[in-house]
């Protein structure tokens, strides 16, 4: 079973990941990982820090000559900003308290994290709760994506809405594959213009915006996940992976929300069969998952993201030291991170898919899995 | 760590559950569990089988004199219908193939399950994928609910919408606590009438309806879950537990969907402090979870349920034996199970909460946990 | 991944198990399970209770017509003694305290368990810590044994020593397969006589004896377990499973203990190759495991069992209520359970093997696994 | 729950570890970790490489100003030798095959690992199966040791025997604490001289030696682990952790092996009580564990280590490419690693103890756990 741990603080030395259970003999293209890391950092509406940090992965173990060894793959992504932050963040040395934070920001882990872990300095929370952590999940997912490409599996995503832009319909797979061409990752040109305008306006007023995006996974065989036990259901596992992404507050499989208001006869995807295609459906309102299993259609998942809570336009809060009210401090300056989150979600989703794929096919080496998958 | 396994087929001998890690010396009221089992079976729009099966739990181990022993609690819920089904479902004896199924129903695990597990008889899938399995989750959750009551934690739920009824606003906790009084578990009298009407109409036309409901958990301390690792985030863990309930296709934390279209300044819950209340918020758009942790406010989660796929009004499918097209068979006859699902969701949610509570407080016995919780 | 939970108190209603992840379409012979349950209960030196309880498994779910469904298999083993014990052990009803225990027995979980779980009545501990629990592990393992027989894998065991009988050499596999013919499961006729004599003498003096036995697993492919991460090593996983059996206090892989005093040139098994056999060894001092993986030779594991702590010949202890010294009470009356433990160990070992086999071959159905295994 | 992953190849860039679930506000002394790393590298009979590599930990995350943040702690230990090995081991670049290995060494993971993961070059196995990996386990355990020191828990070890030296009795805790003073970690001066002589002789003849050592853990409260489920038993968990150490082939709790040949009346530790000491025993043949739980006495565990399989004195094997017989190649040159393994075992054992301690006491911060532990 593919398992992994992530580590790293936002202004610490580096982000780190280890993934265990990755099969042997898989070619890994590090530049493709770096590209996915860049895709997470791009996007209209990101703040200045994105320009400082151009993430690059450094592989420490588990690969040799560009191929996986079956042993755990460890890697790090350096925080280039660390040199400016060392005096505040050194793992060992004495800490300059010039960056101590006692004022919890609404919408963040700040207050609860400080209470839970008994910190005076909220920085001890926010450095880890920061979405910067998702760079590790992107790197991990990017490796799993490369593994899954051997089996014809692809993952992609696109943004449907930001702020109060009404989402359109977008089902052209070729366009979705090219979503990176849009600065806001929206393939509907009209919506794209509206989104850019909304972000510009939010920036101007010091506000922030959330939005809605969709992840698709193509080329899956039927039968990933299982109906036999609740915690093996693929929809549940995807929901956890996606809801755990910072600021994601709702997850929808297929047309789940609309379907809840329709009659059954309008909702379920009828089943057809032909000699060449085998079983297939002509619609995909289920989003590719029935009974907790991939059904062979494309997986379609949507995520609803709240506006990132870091604001120029401050909110009321309470200083934890003095217990006095204040208006919340500004830590960073993105006004919209929906495009970035869509990349993280791609990677979180393909990681779950890879786990379930390996659970079904077993296999220690790529060759072995390929034999079984073809069989 | 509280962990559990569930077992049982819909028309098999019995449903079974084992829960391990339950603290010692907790008084368990079996009648309260039976009441939760009944709450799952009630509800306007359920089919005839609900009248046959009046579920009762039988404790096999882990309790003595009504108190938990710290050892695994095993229990079963007999399928009263089993005597009529024994010839088709006997675990050991030869099987009468009079109930064999070769025609997969759209929207079910049927087709994929039969392919995955290599069955000719789809009954081998549908008996387990059936939502009847949720009775075990209800019994388990009902025990965790009783554990959590010792710490002042309560769980409740209510239905906001069925079919195309427009959901209203319902925030009166006293009314929500009384949701069981409504045959459709809707506390808004006007909506209730509309829902009943919609169900009646669906029944008439042989169709089915889904809907939307809300689960609330009250009385939690801040700090359940954690921001430090993705798989410890409380929202992610709740999302998995709820999305794994049959027919749930979207999960929302707080006002997650609406929030995705608002500006940050409208979304985040400002923080206040007073000597007696400590930290508090005056709004709860975050649904009680920030940074992947309970923040001390009520947990609010919403689930979107598709219409149950079993239909009088049939859909096209393909016979797996003959590969010929047909219109899908009718296995059961509920037209709306939203009220039932809301009870299952209560229990799934409180189970996650109990797990995270015990992770934070440790503790082998109730007394020990109470000391720590008061401390 | 094959996982399971066990439940049940020694004089409670029944023992219960659930195993999840068992592939579909495996034929299960319930009489073969009952035979393994009997094998656990046989054995020279067991007390009277073994005659009362003739264990039989009752399958509650996961099988249909004698074949596995891929869904969780739940089963129970009734405690026939329960009717005599109900007034002391009823899960719900009021408890007659006539069987309350306040005097912890040395060598048992009694004292620590009562402190940990805060019990006044030590019965709340001893009912679960009793080796009666191992009946569930035997039933589970017996199913896994049947699964593994499809792949030519066999498990067997025999007793090498009881008390101070000097163990002999016994390497004849055909004799080991017939160990059940010996009342003490010892295939060396001379040692057998000495063991019987030792047990008789222990009985006479009211004392108890431990001993040494060996488990062998034949027919495994190389490559179960893995060298890549400590917790995937097969020897470590076997060690946990076996050391967790009541009264087992040392576990040895192959000739591990003797090897620790020899030179490397005497210890390691040289590698040979021939066209028909492929790679093979002519010795097996490693016990079939190198680098944490099965190497294709027979797995050989030895377990050292302490004398069961229940004694006619009492030991000093302290009453938990009065804090006064006393001599320890007698709960049961086996004088030697080494033969029984060897059966439990067979089953614990084959369960680990089954888990690792399924991890390597994946597979939802027996057919699929067979295809891969043959490939 | 404290969990961790390790990574790294023997001649790769670096070894890496991540530990998740470590409480906040624990002071970590990095020099103490480096000292434990050195203790692993010391020892009479180690080869030349130990002089090249003087391991030092570099903390990448999870600490700030020398205190833990509650977030995952990631660290690396550079392989100083890597610069000489980069052309053979670079994770990405083309690989010089000058160090390819096609000849599996008996007693190693080589043959099985190459078959399992489908490698032509056995180096892909041996780089990870090497005991060099244990440096990460030492670093992890050293942190857990520092955590546990806050609760008065200590771990120590000493060597009882190497080769055919007959082990003596050594029970003086003060001497055991000073075992590092002996170059072979043996506190019995007479045995020490014999061990040194045996190692010298093995070196001369190009042979290798194993041995026997003991790990002790002092100061534990009763009740770590549990009798309620097989996989929560402390002896089983320790057995897995220790048996997974390279070359350990038997694990014994207390006097487990001797006890297997004695009568019950001679084996079990009688229980006493006094006002100041509470419950106590005057003997400790159980090695501090009864019923799968720590009983408040010292934990005593013994490990039997085979001679390290790398030999100057070669053994027969088969070339995997040509299938021709040969005598096995020499990769490294330690003749005895028993002292080193005893340090690894200390750290593996204290890690398990820390996990169970945190399971019992829960707790996010050191302060919270201290309050509960004192309570």
Features:
homotetramer, alpha+beta, Chorismate synthase, AroC fold, 375 residues, 21% strand, four-stranded antiparallel beta sheet
Ordered list of secondary-structure elements with their pairings:
The structure is a homotetramer of 375-residue chains.
Chain A: E1 3-7, E2 14-20, E3 24-27, H1 30-41, H2 49-52, E4 57-61, E5 63-64, E6 67-69, E7 73-78, H3 82-89, H4 110-117, H5 123-129, H6 134-149, E8 154-162, H7 173-177, H8 189-204, E9 211-218, H9 234-243, E10 248-253, H10 256-259, H11 264-267, E11 271-274, E12 278-281, E13 289-290, E14 293-294, E15 299-305, E16 316-318, E17 325-327, H12 338-361, H13 366-374
Antiparallel strand pairs in A: 1-2, 2-7, 3-6, 4-7, 5-6, 8-9, 9-15, 10-15, 11-12, 13-14, 16-17
Helix pairs in contact in A: 1-6, 1-12, 4-5, 6-12, 9-12
Shape of chain A: globular
Encode the helix/strand succession of chain A as letters. Answer: EEEHHEEEEHHHHEHHEHEHHEEEEEEEHH
Rounded to an integer in angstroms, the radius of gyration calculated over CA atoms of chain A is 22 Å
Number of strands of chain A: 17
| β-strand amount of chain A | 15-25%
Q: What fold name goes in the CATH topology slot of chain A?
A: Chorismate synthase, AroC fold
Low-confidence stretches of chain A: none
Largest interface by Cβ-Cβ < 8 Å? A-B, 99 and 99 residues
Q: Which structural class do you get from the secondary structure elements of chain A?
A: alpha+beta
Multimeric state of these chains? homotetramer
Number of domains of chain A: 1
The mean pLDDT of chain A is 93
Residues in helix, % of chain A: 25-40%
Biggest β-sheet strands, sense, barrel of chain A: 4 strands, antiparallel
Q: List the strand order in the largest sheet of chain A.
A: 1-2-7-4
| CATH architectural label of chain A | 4-Layer Sandwich
State the name of the first-level CATH class of chain A.
Answer: Alpha Beta
